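Let us work through a complete example step by step.
Step 1: write down the sequence.
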Amino acid sequence: MESWIRRLKFYGVGFGIGLLFVFIFFQNRGCSWLPENRVKNSILDRLLVVSDETAEILKKRGVNKKELIQFLNDGDVIFGESEKDKDDKVYVIEKDGKKYLFTLPFESFIAEVQLGNKASEAKTSTEGYGQIWRYPNDSTLVYPDSTALVTCQQDYLGLVNPMDILKELKKTGRIDFAKSDLTITPKPEHYLMFERDDKEIGMKMIWYKNKLNLQSFVIPDSTNCE
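Step 2: predict the structure and record it as tokens.
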């Protein structure tokens, strides 16, 4: 019995040291079950978008993509100031006296960075364009529908491999807020676009099983795919 208690004490000491290392050296990021990290993971599991207007302000402040992601990783989620009990959630994250708001529309694959201090006043953009500052780390993020229309459009564009679509997005991808409708149920519709051969190619997409489900392309040329 005494040996069992001794082993239990050693286990407790080792477990405590392990937690200490996690909290000090990894700043809690190793504990995905903590409420704060669950929020951050929810943001990073989506496309992190910044409106052109907000991006210009951040640029003037000397804030780039890398610094913003670092802010998100290291900052504290202020739950008391966040709108966390609604379908369209808004989280306030603070670091070194600075705050950014992150809107997470319901069933949407975007999280938008916004300026300001009050989560109750933050709304996901409905006009203009947004830049995509970060993509989830998933090489199979784009999942095209297997309909005859989408298959034909992929053949026409020479983008049969979904990974090639993702590459195009990462090069010049943007979101058109005005052409997106995040109020549609059961799944909001997003309008993403990229430039290819001096043409703007649009894509109507929804979020399905953590993938960007491509519903159809919007191509300026006649494709005979209708």
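Step 3: interpret the result. The chain has a mean pLDDT of 89.
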